[in-house]
Design a protein that fits this description.
The protein is α/β, with parallel strands linked by helices and about 400 residues long. It is about 35% helix and about 15% strand. Strands 1-7-6-5-4-2-3 form a 7-stranded mixed sheet, with helices on both faces. Strands 8-9-12-11-10 form a 5-stranded mixed sheet. The longest helix has 20 residues. It is globular, with a radius of gyration of 22 Å. The structure holds pyridoxal-5'-phosphate.
Length: about 400
């Protein structure tokens, strides 16, 4: 039903056209294995000559519906659902790279992704070069004969930098490599990287796809030829999404567009207000005209998304960190947590939480100051959020 309907309709309807019992709301199949009618059918299923379910490590009807729905939303041929966002990244790299291969990754990616590349995959012989997300020339320069993947998040965390997906895809393709985009911050409701030239999409379903902070999950999406090895890795390594989590995410996807629109609307209002506060030195939000890549962001994205970061001014005798912590500690409503994509707004100090394992020099180089605060704007009324940032007034 992919080409025939608007995205909002696909979010509600796609993937579940033919449910086995005619159930209108997708059922949860909480079982590990499936029965065959004969030994011959078992052989045919295992041999791949007859489609159908075998064992929930790699075939489960609830997970399949989730995969089909997310694939329809991203415009992907195939989706492989995984146990978390991190296992999605692991499965993608393990399936498509070998020892001695090279990956070029943005410096501004999720901290745990940096750890995965630099501490774990490095021990297995993967070479990784980190470059600036927005410096197109640096990507070209970093390419070697062994480069297999480019890896980016756009907008980035926490400074919401935006890269030109088409430009990086062109460089990757000329090098015989694939561009991977972690689309966690935007979701397909705001940005569809495959349409812009990317080859592979990563999701942490834990964030906006769930939308209410309940379950962990992830996904890898792309063309069949690229997803077959990823699915093969999952079948063997068992980084499987649980059926229960898939069932929760299915409900999350039905409301994705409505929620993302609401997150973006509130985030833009809050960012605009923050920019006018004398206690705020600088605001980072792609939806603001003051954002360095505002024009590019508005070309690639339907809206700015839900993440707003800003630098707090210090008062006399205060360090930057003290100023940021004082603002955070004075909140009563917004949750102090590093998670994002929840209906509940969250506030965090990147330098001492999400980016605390990054060295102070690397943070300075990336422009993440000790005065920086990140808010993942939830679904509360924006006036209550403004009131909660009491120290800014
Ligand atoms: C949270 C996050 C991840 C990791 O996802 P988990 O589900 O926590 O494993 C990866 N990328 C981005 C951008 C994230 O925000």
């Amino acid at each position: 039903m992919t080409n025939q309907y608007y995205p909002e309709t696909l979010a509600v309807r796609a993937g579940s056209e033919a449910t086995p019992y005619g159930e209108n709301s997708e059922a949860l199949f909480l079982n590990s294995s499936f029965r065959f009618t004969s030994a011959a059918q078992a052989a045919a299923r295992f041999g791949g000559t007859e489609p159908g379910n075998i064992y929930s490590r790699f075939t489960n009807p609830t997970v399949t519906v989730f995969q089909n729905k997310l694939a329809a939303l991203e415009g992907a041929e195939q989706c492989v659902a995984t146990s978390s966002g991190m296992s999605a990244i692991l499965a993608c790299v393990m399936a498509l790279c070998s020892a001695g291969d090279h990956v070029v990754a943005s410096r501004s990616i999720f901290g745990t992704t940096v750890q995965l590349f630099s501490n774990i995959l490095k021990r297995w012989g993967l070479e990784v070069t980190f470059v600036s997300l927005t410096d197109v020339n640096a990507w070209q320069t970093a390419v070697t004969a062994k480069t297999k993947l480019f890896f980016v998040e756009t907008p980035s965390n926490p400074l919401t930098e935006v890269c030109d997906i088409q430009a990086l895809a062109d460089i990757a393709h000329r090098a015989g490599a694939h561009l991977v985009v972690d689309n966690c911050f935007c979701t397909p409701a705001i940005q569809r990287p495959l349409d812009l030239g990317a080859d592979i999409i990563i999701h942490s379903a834990t964030k906006y796809i769930d939308g209410q902070g309940r379950c962990l999950g992830g996904a890898v999406l792309g063309r069949k030829v690229l997803m077959e090895p990823v699915y093969g890795f999952l079948r063997t390594a068992g980084v499987t999404m649980s059926a229960f989590n898939a069932w929760v995410f299915l409900k999350g996807l039905e409301t994705l567009h409505v929620r993302m629109e609401a997150h973006s609307k509130r985030a833009l209002e809050l960012a605009t207000w923050l920019e006018a506060q004398p206690q705020v030195a600088r605001v980072y939000y792609p939806g603001l005209a003051s954002h360095p890549q505002h024009a590019l962001a508005m070309k690639q994205q339907l809206s700015g998304g839900g993440i707003v970061s800003f630098e707090v001014k210090t008062k006399a005798g205060q360090t930057e960190q003290e100023a940021a912590w004082a603002l955070i500690d004075a909140t009563k409503l917004i949750s102090i947590t590093a998670n994002l994509g929840d209906a509940k707004s969250t506030i965090t100090h990147p330098a001492t939480t999400t980016h605390s394992r990054v060295s102070a020099e690397a943070r300075a180089e990336a422009g993440i100051k000790d005065s920086l605060v990140r808010i993942a704007v939830g679904l509360e009324h924006v006036e209550d959020l403004k009131a909660d940032l009491a120290l800014l007034k």
